[in-house]
Every structure is written in C-alpha cells, then in structure tokens.
Amino acid sequence: MKTLQSSYAVLLKDAQSELRTRYAVNALLMFVVTAAVIVQLAIRSEAPSPSVLSGLFWVVVFFAAMSGLSRTFVSEEERNTAMTLQLVASPTAVYFGKLFFNIVLTLILNAAITFLFTVVFPGFEVRQFETFVLTVVLGSLGLASASTILAAIVAKAGSKGTLYPVLAFPILIPLLMTAMKATTRALEGEPFGAASAEFQVLISYIMVITAGSYLLFDYVWKE
Amino acid sequence: MKLTVTKLTKEFNRRAVFRDISFAMDDVDSLAITGRNGAGKSTLVKILSGLLSPTSGIVAYAGDGKAIASDGLRDRIGLVSPYLQMYDEFTATENLSLLSRIRSNNFRFEERSKELLVQFSLWEKRDNLVRTYSSGMKQRLKYVFALLHQPSLLLLDEPTSNLDEEGVGVVQNVVENQKRIGMLIIATNDAAEARWCKNAVHLG
Q1: In this structure, which of A19, A215, B1, B177 has its CB flanked by the most CB atoms within 10 Å?
Q2: Which of A10, A16, A79 sits opposite B102 (nearest CB)?
C-alpha cells in the first residue's frame, strides 16, 4: 500500500513538473508536427497503401518517443535530484511512478499522432476502430515499459542522446513490427479477430518487459 | 537505532577511496568523519545513507534488537549534502509536500514544516520557486527537508557550507538537539565542526 501511495506521488510530482517545465511535451509535440509535415511534403499527392501508412505512423511514434521519453530519468540526473528521490522512495515506487507517467505521456503522444495523421493523410482511414484502438493502447504500454527502463539505464551514462535510440531500437523492433501489422489490419478493415495473434504478442511483450524491468530496476537505479 | 560498520571498503575503477573502515554507534551518539579533500568523506556518507553500495564490508542498522532493512531506513535518516538538490520548478512548500508524500510519512506536515521553515528563516519565502533561492537559502531548505520527519540519524556533509553566521547558529542548535535525541554524523574537514561530535573517524 505504501509503495502504491509512493508511486502515485512520484507520478504526480512528474506530472506537475512537466506542466511547469514542459521538458518532454514540447520536444514530443514539435517532433510529431515536424515529422508529419515533412512526410506529407515528401509524399504529396501519392496515395500510400495502408501498410506504408502504418509503417510511417509507427516510425513517427518511435522517433517521437526517442526524443521525449528519456526525460523522466535524464532530467533527475541532470538536475541532481536523483539522489533526493532515492532518499525518499523505494526503487519499486520510483519505477512504477515513472512508468505510469511514461504511459500517460505515450498515450497522449499517440493520440496526437493519430489526429495529425488523420488530418494530413486522407488515406489514413481507420476502418476497424476496435483493432486500431487496442493496437495503439498496447503499443503505447509496450513502448512506455521499454522506454522507462532504458531511460533509467542511459540517465547514468555519458552520450545519453546517442545511447538511448541505439539501445531502444533492437528492443523495440518486435513491438514495432507487431504493432505495424495490427495497424495495417485496422486500416484495411479486417475483422477484430484477425489481429488476435498480434494482440497476444503485444501483451506478452508488455508482460516480459515490465517483469524484467521491475526485477532489474534496483540494480540500475542504485549506484 | 544502532549502527555497526565493519571493514567497509569502497573502490571506483579498482582504486580504493577508503579501506577497512569500522566503527559502531549507539542510539544516542555522534561521530565526525574527517579527512583531506578526496579522502572519501562524502562517499562514506552516501553509503551510510543507503545511496551507494560499498565494494565490501557491512553497514548494519538495528532497532529493538532487529536488523533494519534499507526500506525501513528511509523514515529514519535525514541527510544534508551538497549532492542533494530540491526541485527548482517548485516552491519550498511544494518541494516539502511532494517529497513527504513520496516518502508516505505520517506526521502533521503543516505544523512541522511551518516550525522548521520559521526556524531556518524561510517562512517568508516559502511560496517562492527554489530556483530564485540563493545558495544559502537552498542549504537551509535542505535542513528543513532533512529534519521534517524527525530522523533517528542525521547525516550532515559539510554542514555549514554556504551559510551565514545566523545560519551557522541555527545549525549548531540543530546539532546539539540531535545529539540529545538521536544519532549524528558530520562529514567535514573543518576542525571546529568535527569537535561538535563525541567521536571521530579519520579517512586517508
């Protein structure tokens, strides 16, 4: 119970801090808008297929996440508040507080990207709504889960900017490939059950990454 | 709460900062950690506060005859250190409130925080953002944060750093009070500050 209260307090702290400083949100939104505009200019009047649009969607999601999700831990190290947090919270509370914050941030990010894609690409038409929503939600959970532990690892390293996407890419490939497949099915209007294999993979990915991160976080967080 | 440190060694990249440090403290006791710059005083303080793991050796806390795990230490230890920072984007009150909620403390927060903010002359500035504070004010706020939950062990790393004469006087009162009610450890290379404590460990 105490850990849950503590995690919630960490989440609230990060949310309040983000509202004041906008460290992550500005970076994320600027990247999303820029990426969507550049891709639209490159494609112009071409009508990309659902699989291409699906790939573009998750490419933008991936790089937007790389530009912003590491801030939860990197900002603590840069501002020397990591030690303060270590003094008051258990590693478990810090991990889950930061994870929940990244989940909220990723869901907001993906909602923004979905809106932009719908506006900018006429061919981005979601024909199977339930499949699309579940894919985006599960993809967001997986992305947040992997990004949180990776952010904790790179926060203590030098060359944080380079290291984060380098570490993230191989770990996120299974998630991105599966999410792209399921998104393509949603854009093509396949029935909800057609993506059940992809949903199973995404749920398994989330469980494995979250469990592994929880077990490893103690060693990553404490010097 | 009692503290026993046995053959504590800390190495960074195979270079020993200190080796085989041993000492014991009773529940009402005081200890100065002295040594030249780079001797490992701050490193030892971080290990004692649970922020850093030793390379070898044991740091054992016990209360009521039972060992206290690291989770149980959070409520019992207060730390003032140059390596500790508050959140610049929040006010003093917000910092104290948020950090107390994260610690899940059960005490009368408003009463206790007011008492300490007044004691450290920060009451008038409690609703100012910490980024507007001087270094001396930030140091005072660290004391308020460290004392908020009435710790059994107070760890002070360079206790009077950035403080004016009035601030040093307040710290001396805090030190005397802590020596009466609990454990106090001061890391310093100032001989006068080291004399505030009953015993001393010299590093280097």
Answers
A1: B1
A2: A10
